[in-house]
Amino acid sequence: MAVSFYTQSRKEIAPIWIRIREGSIDAKARTLISVQQDRLVKSKVVLHRITTGEPEHKNILRQKNDFLNVVQIQLDALRREVQSALNKRDGTELIDSKWIKNIVQPTENINLLSANIDAFLDYKKPLVKTNTYRTYTNLKTLINRFEKENSTLLVSGINLKFRDKFLKYLNDNGYSNSTTILYIRILTTILKHAKKRGVKVSDDIDNFKDDLKNKKTLNVYLTLDEIKRIFELKDLTPQESIARDWLVISCNTAQRVGDLLKYDKKDIKLDILTVQQTKNEHSFPIRIPLLPQVKDILKKYVGNFPPQLNSNPQVSYVYYNRLIKQVCRKAEINDEVKTLTYQKNNIKEDEVSKVIIKKKWEVVSSHIGRRSFVTNYYGKMPTALIQAITGHKTESSFLLYIDRDREVDIENLSAMMLKISKQ
User: Fold this and answer.
1) Tell me: the pLDDT tens digits for 201-230?
2) Which of 116, 148, 251, 314 is the most exposed place for a label (fewest CB within 10 A)?
3) 392 phi and psi, to 5 degrees?
4) Is the pLDDT of residue 311 over 90?
5) Complete edge-to-edge strand list for the sheet that includes strand 286-289
């Protein structure tokens, strides 16, 4: 690409502009370097000619030339910096005025993690799906919250020590193992993007993904009797009562928590709830018959779903996870269940799983509603009908023998679910 410098002001001392051109690309930005307006010709600084004359005049010209030599050195360095960034750029990276400005007019914020997350979001927005971009913004929200509780983060300080501290922060706030691993991977990608843009990052980022593994879990679910006990539970705090109602709705509608907490009464028609799953945003909507427990909860809120636990969705998820454990403890969901714990293997420097026994309420999490629905109805009604509600990962194979536009026999489904729920 052709890199050139020019002035466009008529003032005696004019700012120098940089321009990059190749094919359809024509991007420009003002640099922080200025020069005498007539001293920049065809991207080169032109020195004053020193001829015979008064010594004082020659001395003035030499001083001006010293300044012009410095300007030329600055332009050469800037050209190399821009050329280096061009060579390192991603093949999909858009070269425009904003891209050049980030190089030629670095701000004091360039080393802040928050500023680099913003730059990454700007770069990725036109390239990724809506859900992927939403995950990126969720991480930004978490980082902002972490900073408020700790201190402002510099990119250079994002090392393995920070990674471990951030992992603990996510675990302490109820995020699942798979979610914490996902956020660390995204953070690593953000840091590598910053490095390409010339920001100094820690060498530790190459090891950020070490020792991170998706941990196996043993499935735990709530039986229909336990769901009934939770539904009828008294003496709850207002927040616990809201979480309890969402948990019962979850066990009766089988959706992920991200979709669950977005339910809206406008999506209910003739006792059928229609849900467009966020994870499968391009698939057809899910239609879910409302069972008596869900209808009773809606009556409690005058036809609405329960309120959110917090105005921030991510915080709502965290509160929900905490509160449903408290609710299940109060409902005495005390059956002993097997679960996995992970311990450090000092020999292999790895984590190994170990089966332990816990009370069921201790291992309750947001996904238990979806798991409970599938387990309680599996084998008692056709699998295809269950999949019609869960929209599960096997949906693609399910659609091989079910036409995409085919209507689910909603009356038959409602009757089956109602009969089973009363058993």
Assistant:
1) 988 888 887 766 655 556 788 999 999 999
2) 148
3) -70, 180
4) no
5) 268-269, 272-275, 286-289
Distances (CA, A) of 89 to 28, 101, 110, 194, 197: 17, 15, 17, 11, 8
Please report, as a single letter, which amino acid is at residue 54: E
Average pLDDT for residues 97-115, to the nearest whole number? 77
Q: What are phi and psi of 296, to 5 degrees?
A: -65, -40
Q: Are 48 and 29 in contact (CB under 8 A)?
A: no
**How far is the C-alpha of 336 from the C-alpha of 147, rounded, in Å?**
39
Q: How far apart are CA 161 and CA 238, in angstroms?
A: 39
Q: What are phi and psi of 6, to 5 degrees?
A: -160, 170
Phi and psi torsions of 29, nearest 5°: -160, 155
Number of CB atoms found within 10 A of residue 245's CB:
24
User: Scanning the structure block, which residue is given the tokens 């990454």?
Assistant: 120
Q: Does residue 249 or residue 178 have the better pLDDT?
A: 249
Mean pLDDT: which of 19-28, 108-117, 298-307 is highest? 298-307
Return d(Cα 223, Cα 308) in angstroms, integer. Answer: 26
**Number of other residues whose CB lies within 10 A of the CB of residue 259:** 20
The token pair at 369 is 């509603």
Is 366:320 a contact under the CB 8 Å cutoff? yes
Per the CB < 8 A criterion, the answer to whether 260 and 269 are in contact is no
Among candidate residues 41, 144, 132, 127, the one with its CA nearest the CA of residue 91 = 127
pLDDT bin (cut points 50, 70, 90) of residue 2 is confident
Cα separation values, 1 from 326, 364, 401, Å: 62, 58, 53
Is 405 exposed, middle or buried, given 0-12, 13-18 or 19+ CB atoms closer than 10 A? exposed
Interatomic CA distance for residues 198 and 194, integer angstroms:
7
Q: Please answer whether residues 321 and 250 qualify as being in contact, where contact means their C-beta atoms are separated by less than 8 angstroms.
A: no
Q: What burial class does residue 230 get, using C-beta atoms within 10 Å of its C-beta: 0-12 exposed, 13-18 middle, 19+ buried?
A: buried
For the residues of 174-243, what is the DSSP string, one character each? T--HHHHHHHHHHHHHHHHHHHHTT----GGGGGTTTT--PPP-------HHHHHHHHT--S--HHHHHH
Higher pLDDT, 353 or 305: 305
